[in-house]
Amino acid sequence: MSQVVSKVRAAKLELYRKQGKIHAKAVDGRFNRLRWLMVWLTQGIFYGLCWLTWDVSGQLRQAVLFDIAHEKLYLFGLVLWPQDALLLALVLLIAATGLFLVTALAGRLFCGFACPQTVYTSIFTWIENRIEGDHLARLQLDQGPWTAQKVLTKGSKHLIWLLIASWTAITFVGYFTPIRELLPNIPGWNVGPWEGFWLIFYAAFTYVQAGLAREAVCQHMCPYSRFQGVMFDPATRSVSYDQARGEPRRASGDAKAGDCIDCGICVQVCPTGIDIRDGLQYECINCGLCIDACDQVMTRIGSPTELIRFAPMTATNTAWHRRPRVLSYALLLLVLVALGVWTVDQRSLLRVDILRDRNVLSRETADGRIENAYQLQVMNLTETAQHYGVRLDGDSPVEIVGKPTITVEAGSIAPLQVTLSADASALPRGSHAVAFHVFSGEMRTRESSTFRMP
Ligand code: SF4
Ligand code: SF4
């Protein structure tokens, strides 16, 4: 009899496993609540940040904007230029190292809680759940014939999915084109070719990935799931089933049965349709929903919870000093963050490039002095116009001719012609080092060049 029950249960489980479309059962619990907290947090930032403005001398501009046309990245009060590529590279390195550290500590935690694929799939399946009903109703609807009601139900779901996907695309493009200018242009499709392309592509991408492909992306397309194993160590925590405590399953009728009653709910709630009792599988995104489900079952039958739990993979000793990989990632992260802070602190809002006219290195004036001409490319990286002056560094017989000054508009580059002069008898023949100081109030920079004496 018990064997028959087991067979029926096994057949029922096949409905939920990774063949065909997965209709995961909804479950409540601490991990589910944490997942939704992450959805609200990440999407609150994504959908909201592009609407924030930043006051620059009484003028409002979008606080976060990747202005590709003008080669600038606005991050609140910070304006980054192509010359700040090192800083951007550091930010990417910090993000990657942080991800490696989290993976070494807790496996695919990013996949289960913060990856956009997981987050949007959660939102899209929540909508599906509201419109089509719970997992059983959805299964029934899918297997049933096409009726007017089914067309209406499915059509409403896809319409709402498309609306969300479209708004996601508008938000995405709104980080590259000011969203307050973009939005009024969309109804009449008065957008540029690149904006148009990305609006359509990103909306279609979101709709297909989160609505149709879902867990298939994690199972078959995501490269991260394939190589993240190299970051694990034996103490990396991962969602695991306690075999020793759970087996043999109670449904087997064994007199010394373990705590698993083989209810299959952990499989029913799994968004990737796997059975965690089969051991660690690359499809597992560490979302913890099977823990929530099993904890509820254990509480109901009066057994201790955590038959499925986040546990070290194989190690029994998880002391920090035995985890060189984790320590290396943490140290690297610390160094990169310190380097990033130092780079921002040392960053100058005034840059100068000196160009020499190679055809006329020097010339002699009527009064016997030697002159060299320079063009200073003065780059104002602030958000207001600046007036700059120039002087020479140190005690040198070389002098500046006149008092060159220039006003450079906010975020612009302007050329400033400067002539240096020295008495022909003051210096020997050859090249002599000179240093220009360009300044505006407290802001200053020093650039070296040479004075050529023929
Ligand atoms: S939810 Fe728990 S008790 Fe039920 S099958 Fe899964 S591991 Fe066993
Ligand atoms: S096995 Fe558990 S943790 Fe892994 S994906 Fe399925 S529900 Fe999430």
Architecture blueprint of SSEs:
Blueprint: H1 2-14, H2 30-49, E1 53-56, E2 59-62, E3 64-67, E4 72-75, E5 78-80, H3 85-106, H4 109-113, H5 116-132, H6 135-143, H7 148-173, H8 179-185, H9 193-213, H10 215-221, H11 224-227, E6 237-241, H12 243-246, H13 265-268, H14 289-301, E7 308-312, H15 324-346, E8 350-356, E9 363-364, E10 369-380, E11 386-392, E12 399-400, E13 405-408, E14 412-423, E15 430-440, E16 443-453
Antiparallel strand pairs: 1-2, 3-4, 4-5, 6-7, 8-10, 9-10, 10-14, 11-13, 11-15, 12-14, 15-16
Helix pairs in contact: 2-5, 3-15, 5-7, 5-9, 7-9
Bound molecules: iron/sulfur cluster (2 copies).
The site of one iron/sulfur cluster has 14 residues, from helix 14.
Helix vs. strand class: alpha+beta
- What integer value in Å does the Rg equal? 32 Å
Beta percentage is 15-25%
- Spell out which ligands are present: iron/sulfur cluster
Number of strands: 16
Shape: elongated
| Biggest beta-sheet profile | 5 strands, antiparallel
Individual helix count: 15
Low-confidence stretches: 10-18
How many domains, as an integer?
Answer: 3
| Mean residue pLDDT | 88
Report how far apart the termini are.
Answer: 107 Å
Kindly list the characteristics that best describe this protein.
454 residues; 3 domains; 5-stranded antiparallel sheet; 15 helices; 16 strands; elongated; binds iron/sulfur cluster
In a few lines, what is going on in this structure?
Helix content is 43%, strand content 21%. The chain contains 15 helices and 16 strands.
